[in-house]
Design goal:
The protein contains eleven helices and 13 strands. With 420 residues, the protein is α+β, with helices and mostly antiparallel strands. Helix 1 packs antiparallel against helix 8 and helix 9 crosses helix 11. The chain is rod-shaped and about 170 Å long.
Amino acid sequence: MLEPLPNRRRQMLVVIALIAAVMIVAGLVLRQGTVRGLADSAAQAREQLQLHEEALRALIERYRVLPSVLALDPEVRSALSDPAPPSALTDALNRKLVRINGAADTSTLTLLDREGRAVAASNWRSSGSNVGVDYQFRPYFQQAMRTGTGSFYALGVTTSQPGYFLSQAVRDANNTLVGVVVVKLDLSALERAWTALPDVVFLSDRYGVIFLAGRDEWRYRDLRPLRPEEQAAITASRQYGDLRLTGLPYTRVGMPDDPVPRVRHDLAGELLWVSQALPEAGWTLHLMRSTVPIKANARVVALAVAAALTVLILGGYLLRQRRRMAQLRARSQVELQRLVAQHAEEMRSAQDGLVQAARRADYGESPSLQHLPGRPRATWPILLIEVRVCLEHDQCLGCVDSHMLSQAVGIQKLVPTGVT
């Protein structure tokens, strides 16, 4: 059978076990709080992403009908139907496009013939005029010539200013395709709104290239390496001009099957990542949010739980100690009372024996008491009583001098051994 551990060692093991238990519980609370916080934050991020999508759709739909209206304008149809329209007609069209562009608050309006050459534009007076430029390579022109409508986000060929292009095919009175009208929208207002947000909101195209972002350093970055055919298509359409596209500096965090995807950005730290596809435009809307506040809240909760458990443990320990001290005091009181009673009984027995010895001495039965000087024999019982009272009240030094004590001890030695 093993011997019991020393008390101090046992207490140390209990303390270590309690500390380990508190740390395990706090760790579980931290992990669960982090998972729950990430899930809640991701749900909120998806709701906000939906609002951003609605704002983007509303901005685009506001101008969606404008190309169709311009395609029905008689002057537009007449100019595009004539292979060599008179300069008076094109000048009138340029001025008309300027007025419409100002009223509609668009970026530029451009008319393209069936070969893709710009015959009129709202920026005809600027140094970066679109007039005379060949846009046959642009996807929005090819889409409109093929299906009747088109759209494309790119940098301007002459201005290098980004914008979203909406196109509409133009047909003459005989329903013959004679050209394309193009409306360019400026989406920078969305970027300015996103810049004021604590989250990182951005749009990527079908190739994973970020073209609209609330952070300047995130713009024109690719989310994944481009395949050769994708790079060739971007170059052919001059979508991003002469810009050199670089990868977004991030790495994946966690497991692939985590319900909330997370990444670690070189500058922004760890971020949760939610996305929403916009299939009509071939875009994807993204929102990234820092996980620092989420983990900080989880740590606060875990520390609070650990503190509460520590208080409960300390409270239980103190309560146990109080109960133990109370039991010790009760046992000590009982033992003290027993010792006092035993002492009193012994003193009474000694007193009775001394009194009997003194009486025998008075009758001459105990001549050995004659040598005790300083007190008559009749006063010896009184002396013993005084000494006993002083001893019972712990006043030996106060009322019993050494001479009195020696006399009492001498008298007590004369008590017969048979007396109790």
